[in-house]
Write a structure and sequence with these properties.
By secondary structure, the protein is mostly helical. The protein has one domain. It has 5 helices and no strands. Helix 1 runs antiparallel to helix 2 (42-63), helix 2 (42-63) crosses helix 3 and helix 3 (67-80) packs antiparallel against helix 4.
Length: 110
Amino acid sequence: MTKPEQAFLVHRALLVLYGLLTLLTGLSVAVGPAVPAWLSPLPFVLFFGLMACVHWWTGRACRTGSNLGRSLSVALAVIMLLGFPFGTLIGLYLLSVTLKAWTTPDSVRS
């Protein structure tokens, strides 16, 4: 498996995670008890939904092996380093996959 494919799979897994968090937070609003306005889950739904979109877009760019996908993966990995312990582990793995320049099958043949 190539490094862009590995990065794609990590972003796909994070997309699923953030998608589930968005769904669960939205469902808690729909079926849960009324909450005070200052405890509104709307910011969480928006944040998780935004992160799902970012990982979808980054994963799509990684799948093609583009430099944009690699750069976005590095940026997200650095941010994820702050999320101890799981974010740190995922961030370190993403950095190990994305720090070196990616080679595409076309560049290997020439």
